[in-house]
Each structure stands twice: as C-alpha cells, then as structure tokens.
Amino acid sequence: MGGIELDALTKVYADGTRAVDALDLDVADGEFVVFVGPSGCGKTSALRMIAGLEEITSGEVRVGGEVVNHLPPRARDMAMIFQNYALYPHMNVFENMAFGLKMRGIDREEIRGRVDRAARILGLSEVLKKRPRHLSGGQRQRVAMGRAIVREPSAFLMDEPLSNLDAKLRVQMRAEIARIQRDLGVTTIYVTHDQSEAMTLGDRVCVLRGGILQQVDRPQVLYDRPANLFVAGFIGSPAMNFVEATVAGDEVTFGPHALPVVDRPGLKRYSGKRVALGIRPEDMRAGAANGSAIDIVVDIKEDMGSEVFLHFAVDAPPVRNEEVRDVVGEEALEAADEQTHHHGSPFIARVERGTAAREGDRVKLAVDTRRLHFFDLETGDGIY
Length: 384
Prior knowledge:
Distance between the termini: 38 Å
Shape: elongated
Helix content: 25-40%
CATH topology of the largest domain: Rossmann fold
Structural class: alpha+beta
Number of helices: 10
Radius of gyration: 24 Å
CATH superfamily of the largest domain: P-loop containing nucleotide triphosphate hydrolases
Number of strands: 21
Strand order of the largest sheet: 6-7-8-3-9-10
Number of domains: 2
Strand content: 25-35%
C-alpha cells in the first residue's frame, strides 16, 4: 500500500478551537505509530481526519502517495477500531466478524476462510457461535479486532481500544495487539492517553500537546532525550522530577545540593544562569556516591514489594513552566505545595526493594549524573 503521509494537517472547529495544528508526519508501510498525549491534545481528531470521519480544515492526507482528503471512509481502505467495541448484540461472533464482508458482496467461502483465519490468530475459534453478552471484555475486544482483520485493510486505525479493560487485561491485550500487528505487518496508527501503552507498542511515538506535535521518535529516544519539558514530564512513570537550578562551571546547584555535570556542551552558554533540572525517579538510589549524592529527609515511603518510592522535598524553587502544568495539572501542583509547606520542590525516588529508610529518616541518595536532564526555563526546550 505504501505509507500514510500527513502534510500540515489542521482541524479548526466551528467555535474556533484549533484541535490539530499543522501536523506533519510520514508513517512507513507496515510501521506501528502511536499518538499519545493528555485529553484534548488533538490525537483523536487527527485519527478521525485520517479515517475520513472528520472534515479536514487544511492540509493533506496521502495514502501511498495519493491524496485522499475527499475520499469517503470506505474508499480509504482503512479499518478503524474504537474503544467501544460496537458489536451487534443479536449476532454471534462469526456473524459480527463476517458482517462487513457480507455487505461488500464477498463470496461465502471466502468469508468463511477469512473469519476462520482471523479467529485462529485471535484465539476466538472456540467462541464463534457465542453472542457478545457471553464474552469477556478481552474477548469482545478481540472480536472487534477480528472484524478489522478480515477486511485485510491497508491500515489499522485504533482509537484507545483498551481503555474499557481492567489494568491486568490491558497489559495482556497490549501484548496481543503488538504480536498481531507484527505478524500481519499492517500499517497501524494507534491513539492512547497512556504513555506506558505508547512506549511498549509503538515503533515510533508522537507526543501531542494542544494540537501541536511536540516530538516523534522511537520510545527510547523520547525517554533519553526529550525535546522539551512537556515530553520529559509526560514520558516516564512516576514522572520526572523538576527543580530550578543554577549552572556553575562544571556543576549544577539547587538549594543546598550540587551535582557534577559531564559531557553536556549545550550548558556552556548557560553558565551562571538558571535552568530547569530534571531527574528521573529511577536515576536515584539509596547510598552515598562521591560528588553525586544529595541529602534528603524522607516524607513518605511507599513499599511496592518489588521497589520502593521515597517522597521528599528539595529546598529549591519548583518549575512552574506552563508545560509542566499541562503534564501534572494545577491541582497536583497545589497538592505538592501543601506537601512541601509552600516552599521547595516535591521529589520521588524509585529505589531498590529492601531499602531500610523510614519516614523522617535522613538519607543519602546517589544520583546518576550521566542521566541528568536540563531545559531552558523560558522556552522549555531541552539543552544537550
């Protein structure tokens, strides 16, 4: 089929809301691309324009090099899978999966063969005669996927297909979707608000904010080299810790703490200036390290069994950039102010299980200074 190309794709609603703003993206044939971002960031609007379910304000959608802006959905050879499975309750699984093919006038034996093949792929062969009400949530989701697979489309478009499932089933279905897409090799665009889902599924991940593409890259690149404060705060769980800091030669200082900085040429022009410093919770561990440790007092200890979260405050100004507000929300920032008594910055460290620290203890945390992140306080852009 070729890939899907978006050229300055834009959606402005009648009330003036700019849901998608000049989105440029090339999706290669057979690639799995995920759109991720908070509610209202434009990811579903973009998907619906690609599918032909939403009118395009400006820009182009090209499939295999052909502009499809004015083609109806059924002429675009794409199968869309929604979060509500939209199964016909009076039809059994076989009939639900076969319905679209029947409407297209496909031969009965061809329909039987396609449905049987899809059922084997999805593990549905034993429930083909059952109606949706007799199926589990995961089975219903697989039926919805089967209905898309039997069409043998050029692309799958998935709009938060796992959001109605419980956490355990979501993890199982994530693995199923990844396996099926890999086996079929069908170009797939997948929308989710769950960054963990995005990172585990996508060949590449597109992070959107306010209708604007913030960064698109492989999951590991988004994690290691976020383009700005928003991407840094959105990708990773628990979220990256942020604090205002000052660059001083080969060190960065924040409150009473100082950490060495190595191999960060972009910081040279910020010498003597304030920046946003980001430290991921997993880049700290209990125990001293020469020149790369911070002294903290544990406020709250969360023992998760396999790991421990230590909550504490750093006596330095928090980052109040608009991008950070968009990630954590105003209420969370207010709660953090309460926790730190209206001064300092709330931090979380993810440390190894068995850590003996208790609430109220003073602890040294070693910081992996190779993994520090720096951002311009005015623009929010990453400094590398």
